[in-house]
Amino acid sequence: ACFGPQSPIFLSGFSMGGFGALRLGAKYADRFRAIGGHSSVTHFDQLSIFANDPSGAYHSVPAEERSVLHWMKKNRAFLPPVRFDCGADDRLVEFNRQLHRELEAEGIPHEYVELPGTHSWDYWHAQLREMLKFFDAQLG
């Protein structure tokens, strides 16, 4: 298997999938070329915005391991390039801004983009092209 900067695998998602992509991409950082998220949930507790009782799958996961930031800090030495974005009118924008600020404070390289938009397919469709450009730049 090819891991690290030569990995052929890129990981991205939106909303709850953005949480999965950023968290798993940071947790298993050495397996990916780059990771990203659109309008991402940034901590497990935010899943309650979208699901009545999301606790089942994460019941046994220690509280500190439920955040994107935890894994990015823990694996900062071999974290792949990270890009995430959020619409300025998205209900998750404050969480994404907070993750951006925390990553900056920790000195963890990343790209954060905030543009007009909401938590919608129209926004994600437009941003998918930008994520693919970001991933393509990692191949060069």
Give an account of the 3D structure.
It is built from four helices and four strands; from the N terminus they run βαβαβαβα. The chain has 140 residues and is of the alpha/beta class. It has a four-stranded parallel β-sheet, sandwiched between helices. Helix 1 links the parallel strand 1 and strand 2 (34-38). The longest helix is centred in the last third of the chain and has 17 residues, at 121-137. The radius of gyration is 14 Å and the shape is globular. It starts with 9 loop residues before the first strand and ends with a helix. The mean pLDDT is 90.
Number of E-state strands: 4
The separation of the N and C termini measures 21 Å
Structural class: alpha/beta
Shape: globular
The low-confidence runs, each spanning 5 or more residues with pLDDT under 50, are none
- The helix tally amounts to 4
Beta-strand residue fraction: 15-25%
- The level of helicity is 25-40%
The biggest beta sheet is recorded as: 4 strands, parallel
H and E order: EHEHEHEH
Throw out a few tags for this protein.
about 140 residues, 4 helices, alpha/beta, about 15% strand, 4-stranded parallel β-sheet, about 35% helix, globular, 4 strands
Brief rundown of the structure:
By secondary structure, the chain is of the alpha/beta class. Helix content is about 35%, strand content about 15%.
